[in-house]
Amino acid sequence: PDVISGDMESAMAVELNPWVEYEFRVVATNKIGTGDPSAPSRVIRTNEAVPKTPPANVSGRSGRRHELVIAWEPVSEEFQNGEGFGYIVAFRPNGTRGWKEKMVTSSDASKSIYRDESVPPLTPFEVKVGVYNNKGDGPFSPIVVICSAE
């Protein structure tokens, strides 16, 4: 928070990230100068919330014949907003309706492989990757078009 008058006994920290541990200190200042910071408070974790940050840089990677390899940059822990974090990988052949979805339960995951013997090489797919945690589903990345392996 901003500077608080000397007669205040509390302050409210705002715009903190969900599911992050914080410590707080107090520093006093007067005409003479600034004192040493207080000892840190006990560690406080903010409440969980639905994730709001989708993975970045969704792209295709090389793979084996009949594979669609979907890659992304994992969401850092500070933006996972709670326990049970994972990814929802959605894909469909370009120009079709209805998404196929695959759940990826590892928060560290950075790729998913879909294998289908009936998919010809270099078939274009629309792909998006979303996020979820125990509180619910978050947003999807923008749709990108990638091709199945040759």
From TrEMBL:
Membrane topology: Lipid-anchor; GPI-anchor
GO annotation (BP), single: brain development
MF-aspect GO terms: cell-cell adhesion mediator activity
Subcellular compartments: Cell membrane
Main location: membrane
Keyword annotations: Cell adhesion, Cell membrane, Disulfide bond, Glycoprotein, GPI-anchor, Lipoprotein, Membrane, Signal
Any one GO cellular component localisation term in the record: plasma membrane
Phosphoprotein found in the keyword field: no
Domain Fibronectin type-III: 1-49, 54-150
PANTHER family (alphabetical): CONTACTIN-5 (PTHR44170:SF17), PROTEIN SIDEKICK (PTHR44170)
Family, as annotated: Belongs to the immunoglobulin superfamily. Contactin family.
Protein known as: CNTN5 protein
Species per Swiss-Prot/TrEMBL record: Thalassarche chlororhynchos (Atlantic yellow-nosed albatross)
Native organism taxonomy: Eukaryota, Metazoa, Chordata, Craniata, Vertebrata
Gene: Cntn5
